[in-house]
Each structure stands twice: as structure tokens, then as C-alpha cells.
Prior knowledge:
It is a single chain. By secondary structure, the protein is an alpha+beta fold. It has a single domain (2-185), classed as Roll (Archaeosine Trna-guanine Transglycosylase, Chain: A, domain 4). Helices cover 25% and strands 32% of the residues. The chain contains 6 helices and 7 strands, in the order βαββααβααβββα. It has helices at 10-17, 54-57, 64-72, 97-101, 111-119, 171-185, and strands at residues 2-9, 23-26, 43-49, 79-94, 125-142, 153-160, 166-167. Strands 1, 2, 3, 4, 5, 6 and 7 form a 7-stranded mixed sheet that branches. Helix 1 crosses helix 3 (64-72). The relative contact order is 0.26.
Amino acid sequence: xxxIAFKEWAVICxxxxxxxxxxxxxxxxxxxxxxxxxxxHDRFLLEPTFFHEQHRTGIKPDFLSLLDAAEASRPxxxxxxxxxxxxxxxxxxxxxxxxxLALDSFHCWTPExxxxxxxxxxxxxFALIVRVFRLLSATEVVDxxxxxxxxxxxxxxxxxxxxxxxxxxxxxxxxxxNRAVAAALGPESPPHPQIAC
Length: 197
């Protein structure tokens, strides 16, 4: 059971759920303390968000079909639909732009989006390698005001069942992805300490 959700662009949730990426780049939400994201939770539901104009202009053309698919399956207003959850396997705090740009083949953001996010306020980005699991069945949650806002974390009143969820990538495919991301980041980006739930 999980009650903590991570708000992320719907197209990225789709890419994670389809196994197209297993990396989340995060700067932080303006509603968070100091406007800075912290990797507070290591297991969380993926909550797709649809309100960013930059969804279409901020992603690579190869991923536009995923954005269209996410929009086509968008739940009615006032409903949050949850289909996947993620487990964080490693966290890096990237403090050099070239390291962030070296991850280009592992996610759907354009280089311009990466640069913009990296440079916003204090330079840097968090990179989370996540193992994503498909829930046995989709769960719908009634949206409410306390879930709204530009923030990363949401806690639902009722936990969502995770029993029977299956990984979207095989053990071998995920291990290879993890190794490739670590190689791209290189030794100058040390692991950032995770904070337990």
C-alpha cells in the first residue's frame, strides 16, 4: 500500500510506465520549502500532471506520441488516475551542466529544457534512477484542494494497493540502464544521501 505520490509531467509518467526511461530529473516545486526538491521518499505513486504548457515544447519530438497517448487517456476533471509506482534505486545531485546534458539519451526532455531547469535559481538538478511498477489495476482518487499546487509530494487520505504490481523493465534491462546512467554521470557526481520515508 502507498499513500505518497510524486507529481510529474504526464508525458514523463507515460515514458516511465512504458519503460522508455527509468530516470527522473527534478529541480523542485515553488510550493516546497525554499523552492528546492529533496528526495524525501524512496517509494511513491506516479501522479501525472497535465497543466504545463511546456509539455509539448519541452520534450523531444520522438516522445510526442507518448504525450498524445497521455492526453487521450486523461481522466475527467476532479479525478487523479494512478497506474504505476516507483522505487528509487539511486539519487545523484548534479552540479555541472555538462553532466546533466550527458544524460540526453535517457529521458524525454529537450536539451533546452534541461538547461533551463538546471540554471533556474541555484544551478543543479537531482537525477533519480527509479524502478517502475505497473499496478494490477488503475486506482482513481478524487482530487481535492490540498493535493493542488506546484509541489512534488502529495499524500492521499486512502492508501493505494500495490500488491501484484509488476516491473515495467526486466531485471536485466533495468540493471543495464542503471549502469549506463552511472557511466554517463561519471565519478564526479557522488550519490546524494537519501532520506528514508
